[in-house]
Amino acid sequence: MDSYPYPTLADFGKDPWWLMVGKCVAIFVFLVLTVLMSMWVERRIIGRMQLRIGPNRCGPFGLLQGLADGVKLALKEDIVPSGVDKIVFWTAPVISAIPAFISFIIIPFGPMVSVFGHKTPLQGTDLPVAVLLVLAMSSIGVYGIVLAGWASMSPYSLLGGLRSSAQVISYEIAMGLSFVAVFLFAGTLSTSGIVAAQHDRWFALMLFPSFVVYVITMMGESNRIPFDLPEGEGELVGGFHTEYSSLKFAMFFLAEYINLATLSALATTLFLGGWRAPAPISTVWAGANEGWWPILWFLVKMWMFIFFFIWLRAALPRVRYDQLMKLGWKVLMPFSLGWILLVATFRALRNEGHSSTGFVIGAAVLVAIAFGVSVVVDILKREKPGAKTAEPAESGKRTAVKPDPFAGGFPVPPLDAPHYHGVVPRPAPESVTEKKEVESGIH
Q: Where are the membrane-spanning stretches (predicted)?
């Protein structure tokens, strides 16, 4: 263990009132600045990937574009549709934004430091169940989206709210399961304790399957491309915030980018060693993990995840909704449960002093067999039977074949145009001359 002091649960709750207020204000300012920088970085990176310039007018290199957008939203007319439940309509953005700020209070930025003579951890606060606070706040945040869709009196908004509730429930369960292996190895649910447990090795290396599951689920929790089904513009106009404008829409926008920062910071804390410097730096430089330097390592790791989010948005298309649900319920959850059983068995064998080499080899063989069987079953399910052919019709008659709406496993409404056996319907005439030829029987 290193010589510098690690924060413990006993170090929290002893700060004077002015230091507690200062920490809250610092976290609030940090999140607001992170949102402004995330918006600018996202536009510049996506612009470069799509061979565009991006924002370059407001301030040097367009750095003040996010601030200009905030002022523009504040000055826009606040439109409230008639017939809505105004109390719920106004409360929903607040319910969505406030939990996003609260979740960041348990993220550790560094070790114990001295602030005006008072030794304090570089963290808002810590709890014995700190990670569960993040899951609870994300669950409360989805109420804002659901209530916004329900109170808007719009079918598009209502469908967006329902999609969001189903999506968050599906991926929050898998996300919670990905944390279990971390809790088993760290022996605690407090974020400061989890960072201390990674003093020699990151959990992203030891628990790589849990890390992969978390990365997928945090995309589902953030409601961003490719999992932004609650606000799919193609079919829902704007989703749950279709009827919102001005500052109320800005609060939804703010909540989305704060959740982006919170999920990235949580991934850094649980899997990438938190505020600790990477191995080459920490081994060469003895003071890399002391004082205020750990804030730099924490920010570098967090922004790596934010860049990963932006990269996915520019590279991947939106998935279909049934594929989204299938991935959450039929892939991530069973895989996470099986992985937890393996990790728990491995830890139990190590605690009792048994050799774990044979267990690891046997578990790898079982996982390979299960994976092969699942691939074969999936291939067999994808083989669709041939289309039903109609009986030969009498000469001069056409027999209509009704399409199967459940042919691909996903209900599709039947088309309006009839399908005739062996006959492809001719498209409608496009010109007046062609229409006259059709009516006269030339064709």
A: 20-41, 87-109, 129-152, 173-196, 202-220, 257-275, 295-315, 327-346, 358-380
Rounded to whole angstroms, the Cα distance separating 128 from 126 reads 7
Q: pTM (2 decimals)?
A: 0.78
In-domain check, residue 174: yes
48-93 pLDDT, tens digit per residue, is: 888 888 888 888 888 888 888 888 888 888 888 887 888 888 888 8
Under the phi-then-psi rule, with left for phi > 0, alpha for psi from -120 to 50, and beta for the rest, what region is 83? left
Number of domains in the chain: 1
CA 88 – CA 151 distance, rounded (Å): 6
Do the Cβ atoms of 219 and 313 come closer than 8 Å? no
Task: Give per-residue pLDDT as tens, 220-278.
Answer: 877 777 887 777 666 677 778 888 888 888 888 888 889 889 999 999 999 998 888 88
In 3D, which of 67, 101, 27, 41 has the Cα closest to residue 304? 41
Beta-carbon contacts of 9 under 8 Å, excluding residues fewer than 6 positions away, are 126, 127, 128, 190, 192, 193
Which whole-number Å values give the CA distances from 199 to 146, 194, 267, 270, in the listed order?
41, 9, 16, 12
- Where in the sequence is the domain holding 127, given as residue range(s)? 9-351
CA 204 to chain centre: 18
User: Average of pLDDT values for 293-313?
Assistant: 90
Q: Are 261 and 302 in contact (CB under 8 A)?
A: yes
How far apart CA 361 and CA 255 sit, in angstroms, is 45
Domain-embedded: residue 369:
no
In a domain, 221, yes or no: yes
Beta bridge partners of 113: 120
CB of 219 within 8 A of CB of 305?
no
Assess contact for 22 and 241: CB atoms under 8 A.
no
CB 224 within 8 A of CB 313: yes
Residue 215 lies in a domain: yes
Cβ-based neighbour number of residue 329 at 10 Å: 15
Name the residue among 374, 386, 382, 387 with its Cα closest to residue 408.
382
Q: Is the distance from CB of 191 to CB of 152 less than 8 angstroms? A: no
